[in-house]
Amino acid sequence: MIEHKSPEDIQRMHVTGQFVGQVLAELADLAAVGVNLLDLEHHARRRIEERGAESCYWDYAPSFGKGPFRNVVCLSVNDAVLHGLPHSYKLRDGDLLTMDMAVSIDGWAADSAHSVVVGTPAEEDLRLIEATEVALEAAIKVAQPGNRLGDISAAIGSVAAEYGYPVNLEFGGHGIGRTMHEDLHIPNDGRPGRGWKLRSGLTIAIEPWFAAGTNKIVFDPDGWTIRSADGSRTAHSEHTVAITEAGPLVLTRRPQSHTGLQDRQKSSVSGR
User: Where is this region: Disordered (predicted)?
Assistant: First the structure.
């Protein structure tokens, strides 16, 4: 069942979303050469406990997983892009790290993902991350009442094509609200003007993710971590978005100071 939220419900989700955005910004700032992935996991655990929130990942057990997920953040490195299982690994110079986190506060969930480069960035990795961010903003722009779900998918697919990246359709965005996954699957490519009609009060997680060289994926033996089948680098950007009469409202924006840090990193590589 697709539930359309009231303005009060959306405000409650916004509180959760602001917390998720803040913690992801903290994790991105902590991610440095020599830092263990488990240190990032434990920081997220502490912040969730301090806030009195609940992780949407802990005990998450979908059909594709291997047993319940017993962590609070997905940490995926280089060719890993989704559901990365935190483990003892010290980040290396040039690693591309994707962090994905969903929590619930007072019964309302928010979900977001962010990719960064640790240490010295390669231009092609920053371009890949940029493609997911541009695709996400393009999709948010068309998340307007009266448009269709296919408009969101088409916006993402168009950006992927522009950058020359293939698109996997197995995993994409989804409805969100009282639980992390609600009805509506949002593929990362599609045809405009098709699909569910968007109405005010709909809350969705939009999450473009691309691999540099393939649209095929493989699973690690841990049953969770999803990688590009050809070993190429991957990136993933995600926001929880509410559709309102005034336009799309992004509920999981990260603090502006963190966004500026990422912009400076990109500029240092491009020479601008």
Answer: 252-272
Please enumerate in sequence order all residues whose Cβ is within 8 A of that of 247, keeping only pairs 6 or more positions apart, or say none. Answer: 144
* Total length of the chain: 272
174 among the known binding-site residues? yes
**266 pLDDT higher than 70:** no
Helix, strand and coil in the chain, % to nearest 5: 30, 25, 40
pLDDT digits (tens, 9 = 90+) for 81-137: 999 999 999 999 999 999 999 999 999 999 999 999 999 999 999 999 999 999 999
The 10s digit of each residue's pLDDT in 53-84 is 999 999 998 888 788 999 999 999 999 999 99
pLDDT tens column, 123-163: 999 999 999 999 999 999 999 999 999 999 999 999 999 99
Instruction: With respect to residue 1, please indicate whether it lies within any of the assigned structural domains.
Output: no
Q: Is 185 annotated as a binding residue?
A: no
Query: Any binding-site annotation on 207?
Result: yes
* Domains in the chain, number: 1
- Domain region containing 164: 7-265
* Residue entry with tokens 């959306």: 10
Any binding-site annotation on 181?
yes
Task: Give the residue ranges of DSSP H helices in 52-142.
Answer: 123-141
In a domain, 271, yes or no: no
259 domain-assigned = yes
Residue 222: both structure tokens together: 């841990």
What CATH code is carried by the domain that includes residue 150? 3.90.230.10
83 has binding-site annotation: yes
